[in-house]
C-alpha cells in the first residue's frame, strides 16, 4: 500500500530532520526509515540528505510504501468494516476470531480476513493492529494502513491518548457487595444511599509462574495496571460494567475483575463457569483518538453483542 503525504513549510529550518522532528513530530522510527531508505521522501522533487537545510516554502513529500505484503495468508472471511480512509481501518471483530495467526489458528484470524480484503483490490498490505483483542473478546479494532499511522497510534497508546472503553459482564451484584471496600488495590465510589457505583482498580499484574498465558495480581513483581469501571446494569446474578483502561496489560480486565471477586463468566482461564454463554462476555465498545495523520478527533462505537444481551436478559 502506498501513501504520499504532501506538505509546504512556512519557516526555514536548519535541516529536514529538524522539520520532521520539531514541526511535524514524526516518530523516531519513521525518521530512521526515511534516513535508511526503507521509506522515501522528496524536497521540491529532489532527495537531499536529512541534514540538508530546508528553505521556507519548500514542497515536501513523504512517500510511505509497503514493499512486501504480510506473510499471513489471505482468507475470505466475514469482515465488518466500521470506517476506512487512506490511513486507518476500523473493524468490529466478532467473538471467536483471533487477531493474529498462531500455531493453532493459521487461516481463521482477523489478519487473514483483512489481507484478503486488500488482495481483492490488488493492494499489498502489512497487517498492523493498534489494539489487539483476545480471541473471545469482541468489538472495535483499529488497524493502520501505513507505517506512520502505526507509529503514531502506538505513541497514542503509550501516552494514553487512544481511549478504550469496554462493556463487560461479571458475576454477582457489585452495588451491595460489602467486601469491595476491603480490596487494598481498589478505590470504590459510593452513592448517597451507600451503594457502590463504580471505582478504580490499581492492582499490579504479572505472568503466573509456570504459565505462558495466565496472569495474576502481583504486588511485588507486577507491572502497574489501572482499570476504571462504573456499574451500568444489575440483575439477579450478573452486573454489566462500563470499563476504561488506563493501561493495556495482557488480560487486564479479566484479572482485575477476578481480583475484585467478580470474575467474568465463561472465562476458560480464570472462571470456567458457563451459564448460557460460550465465551467471556467482554466487548470493545468505544474507541476515541486523534486521527494519526490529520489530528482530527475520531470516535467509534459498537453495540452490545447479542450473546451478551441475552445473558443479561436471561438473569435480569
Give the ordered list of helices and strands. Answer: EHHEEEEHEEHEEEEEEEHEEH
Helical stretch tally: 6
Shape: elongated
Beta fraction: 25-35%
Termini gap:
49 Å
What does this structure look like?
This protein is an alpha+beta fold and 316 residues long. Helix content is 18%, strand content 29%. The protein has 6 helices and 16 strands. The strands form 3 sheets. Strands 4, 5, 6, 7, 8, 9, 10, 13, 14, 15 and 16 form an 11-stranded mixed sheet that branches.
Q: What is the fold's blueprint, element by element?
A:
Blueprint: E1 2-8, H1 16-23, H2 28-36, E2 40-43, E3 59-65, E4 81-84, E5 88-93, H3 110-119, E6 128-129, E7 138-144, H4 147-158, E8 163-171, E9 186-190, E10 196-201, E11 205-207, E12 215-217, E13 227-234, E14 238-245, H5 252-260, E15 282-290, E16 297-301, H6 306-314
Characteristic key phrases:
316 residues; three-stranded antiparallel beta sheet; alpha+beta; 29% strand
Brief write-up:
The chain has 316 residues and is of the alpha+beta class.
